[in-house]
Amino acid sequence: MNTLMTLPSDWDGMPASFIEGALFAANANPKPMEPEIWLPVLAGSTVDGEAVMPSDEDKVAVLNHFEMQYRTVKAGEYQLPTELQWQENGEANAVLAEFAKGFLTVWQYIEPNWEAQIASDGTMRMLSALLTTLMLCVDEAGTLEQMEQAGFMGMPAPSELYPQLPLMLTEVMMAADQLQIGAGAQAINPYKNVGRNDPCPCESGKKFKQCCGKSA
């Protein structure tokens, strides 16, 4: 996958690069979420201060691309669209900045779900690096100034971070997917709160480990 979403001819919402980033943030969610929560962001318009939901036709087109993005990442086949790839002149272009804005805009809905997770240190470092890189894409000078004021030292140069963006995106999305799978497996395990020496829930009178726990 190396092309941006083809927008409907009458689309008047956010640009395709913004949508690509927004969908990546939604796909990097460690907890299931209804698309209706973040879809209005893509329309880019409001009525009486409320974000407008895309039309049913546009919604289908966006969600189809959302699913395609997920499947290609899972299959290890995703590549950033050509327009979003890091330019060797060392400057993040405007299209890449729109991608970053899309991700960070939807991230406000996703971040609380990550905060509620117990993820590995490696995953959290990768997530932190991804968010930092995206903020640099939007405003490199401002982000560097904020980091300096916050006392962050020894950070890689932005020119070293940008080329790693595809890897960061893929790793974070795959980590979110594994967290969802793990949570689902725990939720459907009827014995998750039963100790091995507890009485078996089937009321056989045996200990769990000597009864249903043998195959659990």
UniProtKB/TrEMBL annotation:
InterPro entries: SEC_C_motif, YgfB-like, YgfB-like_sf. Pfam families: SEC-C, UPF0149. The keyword DNA repair does not apply. Keywords: ATP-binding, Helicase, Hydrolase, Nucleotide-binding. GO terms for molecular function: helicase activity. The keyword Nucleotide-binding applies. This is Export cytoplasm protein SecA ATPase RNA helicase. It comes from Photobacterium leiognathi lrivu.4.1.
